[in-house]
Amino acid sequence: MKTDKLKEDFVAAVDYVNAYTDPLPADLLLKLYAYFKIANRNFSHPGSRTPLINAFKANALIQAKNVSIEEAMEKYIQLVNQEVKKIKK
After folding, report:
1. Whole-angstrom Cα distance, residue 80 to residue 12?
2. Integer distance in angstroms from the first to the last C-alpha of the chain?
3. CA distance 38 to 72
4. Which of 12, 16, 23, 78 is most buried when burial is the number of CB atoms within 10 A of its CB?
C-alpha cells in the first residue's frame, strides 16, 4: 500500500473509531490503542489515573513492540474493517 494512501486510510479509520458511540470490547480497544500509539510514534507513558488500566495499556504496547509504523497503521485499519465495522452491521 502506498504511504500516502496508507496514511489517508489510517486517518479515516481513526476518525471512524473516534465517532463510534457503541461500546467496544476491551481487548479490541487495547489493540487499537497500541497500534495507534506506534503509528503515531507516541511512546509516552499511558496517562490513565488507574494503575490497572495503565498496566493493560503498557502490556498491549509490549505485545506490539516489534511492529513497524506502517504495519501498525495497516493492522489498525484491518481491525477497524474486520472488527469494529462488523459489530455495527
Report:
1. 10
2. 27
3. 6
4. 16
Q: What count of residues does the chain have? A: 89
For the chain, the average pLDDT equals 93
Residues 62 and 55: their CA atoms lie apart, in Å, by 10
Q: Cell 506502517 identifies what position?
A: 70
Task: Tell me how far CA of residue 32 lies from CA of 3, 39, 56, in angstroms.
Answer: 20, 10, 13
> What's the predicted TM-score (pTM) here?
0.91
What secondary structure letter does DSSP report for 64?
T
Q: Which three cell numbers stand for residue 48?
A: 490513565
Confirm if 58 and 2 have CB atoms less than 8 A apart.
no
Q: What angle do CA 50, 53, 58 make, to 5 degrees?
A: 125
- Per-residue pLDDT tens over the stretch 51-79: 999 999 999 999 999 999 999 999 999 99
